[in-house]
Write a structure and sequence with these properties.
The protein is mostly helical. It has one domain. Helices cover 79% and strands 0% of the residues. The chain has 4 helices and no strands. The longest helix is centred in the middle third of the chain and has 40 residues. The termini are far apart.
Length: 122
């Protein structure tokens, strides 16, 4: 490793260390995922960004980028998890209503289920 590579690695390590020890007020928060649509969009976009970083060398700079990307991915996954929990509840309403031949609930809850699920899978 040449001296310039060593100095670059040291500088990058210091940048990462500074970011880690700066405290929560300066720490990267990631993009928010306030809606299901936003969570799906961020999940797709940031997975692509992570994939791109992983195709290269995992330098200290790349590791810092991965670190930052994961915050947005974690936010998206949390929102997706919350929404899927609600989706499961809605589908269970459809299921139970179908057992009772409750056509009104099957139709309304079924439409609600499909509307939400189509935001996840097109």
């Amino acid at each position: 490793m040449t001296l310039s590579h060593q100095m670059t690695a040291i500088a990058a390590s210091l940048l990462i260390a500074t970011a880690v020890f700066a405290g929560d007020s300066d720490h990267f928060k990631g993009e928010p995922a306030k809606t299901l649509e936003q969570a799906v969009a961020n999940f797709s976009e940031y997975n692509n960004k992570l994939e791109h970083v992983l195709t290269g060398d995992l330098t200290p700079e790349a590791m810092n980028e991965v670190h930052q990307l994961t915050y947005t991915l974690e936010n998206a996954l949390q929102k997706l998890d919350d929404e899927i929990d609600k989706l499961e509840e809605t589908l269970e309403k459809v299921h139970k209503a179908s057992e009772r031949a409750d056509t009104n609930t099957v139709r309304s809850a079924g439409e609600q289920y499909l509307t939400t699920s189509r935001n996840i899978v097109k």
